[in-house]
Amino acid sequence: MGKLLEPIWGSKEFLKFIFVINFLTSVCVFVTAIALYYVTQQENYLYMPIAGFHGVLAGFLVGIKQIVPDQELPLLKIKAKWLPSLMLLLSIAISFFTPDSATYLPTLIFGTYMGWIYLRYMQRKPELKHRGDPSEDFAFSTFFPEFLRPIIDPIASIFHRMLCGKSEASTDAQGYTLGGASLPGSDPIEASRRRERGARALEERLATEKLAAAQNSQESQIDGADNV
């Protein structure tokens, strides 16, 4: 995942993403563990893992969702935009059968959410002179199936007001405008270019892996012929 995201974000932004998501995820899991302990008085919450790379990996999936949402994965036959949702769904299902894996569930959930918060509202884009990605294709409700989005959107708008000081309704009415001009992040052309860069990086990575595999196969055949 890092090989796909780093060329597009740059090394500095890539490392910043890892640090910020890991820190925010750890803080959220710590606060959640303390709150659950005071509510339930069960000491096992005090030993909940609050660190690890699981949250960052979940954030990487959100980054892939943003960059190449419509890219279909060859093995799973699903679009990349559903990777974070599928990961969380499987993690929740597994936690019912393996209690040990349930301890990492908060890290995955907060890693996914913090990754979306960072990319949606905080990531700086110097070439566009604004932060985040306000496009509708990256809204919080896109993590859910279509029939749930009318329910999710009003709830998500509450948090949007907290982070941006304005509601989703007013944002939609203005079309993400500032002084009568559309914001760069809401430009479908810019979003299309970002997806094209992501798709191109993914194709180059797959081509490199295929070439390396072919070379290894040829070398093994040559070694086998020499041994004979």
Question: Topology, please?
Answer:
Layout: H1 2-9, H2 11-40, H3 54-67, H4 83-95, H5 99-102, H6 105-122, E1 124-125, E2 130-131, H7 149-164, H8 168-174, E3 177-178, E4 181-182, H9 188-227
Antiparallel strand pairs: 1-2, 3-4
Helix pairs in contact: 1-2, 1-9, 2-6, 3-6, 4-6
Defining traits:
two-stranded antiparallel ribbon; 228 residues; globular; 66% helix; mainly alpha
Description of the structure:
The protein is mainly alpha-helical. Helices cover 66% and strands 4% of the residues. A two-stranded antiparallel ribbon has the order 1-2. Helix 2 packs across helix 6 and helix 3 crosses helix 6. The longest helix has 40 residues. The two termini are 40 Å apart. About 10% of the residues have low confidence.
